[in-house]
Amino acid sequence: MPAPGTISYRKMKVKHHIIVSLSGGVIIWLITQSFFKAILFSFAGIFIDVDHLFDYVRNWGWKIMPLRNFFNIFYTLKLKKIYVLLHGYELLAMLGLLLWYLKVDWGWVVFLSLAIHLLMDQIYCFTHFRRNSPWFYFLTYRISKGFESERFLKIKF
Ligand SMILES: [Zn+2]
Fold this sequence. Notes:
Mean pLDDT: 82
Bound molecules: zinc ion
Strand content: under 5%
Number of domains: 1
Order of helices and strands: HHHHHHEHE
Oligomer: single chain
Low-confidence stretches: 1-9
Distance between the termini: 14 Å
Structural class: mainly alpha
Strand order of the largest sheet: 1-2
Number of helices: 7
Shape: globular
């Protein structure tokens, strides 16, 4: 396994989300026989990470950099502020309540996919960062820290 801090090591996280989301989509399809639900599951688990784009632009502007470096900066302390605004257990809980209230049949698929994604991120952060708060994936926690990465992340070396 590559040492923490190397590019290939960091890319594994993205790869894992894709593998889990796609294979989870297949399982959902096998269980429900619904292609729509399978696609929803796969898309939700991968595209929640689109919020990294916001962080990137906030910190770096619209400067274009190679894709390799794009992923690179998220797992180092090169971002002064980490927002990841779609990553939050509170948001997940609110989504769950909304879906339960609206009784949206396909909603649980999105909820499940996002929950798995967040748990994977949580586990990743615990194993690869030291002094990382267990509360990191609560949006309110990050707000309380002013989204400043140095106040909640330190990379293990
Ligand atoms: Zn994520």
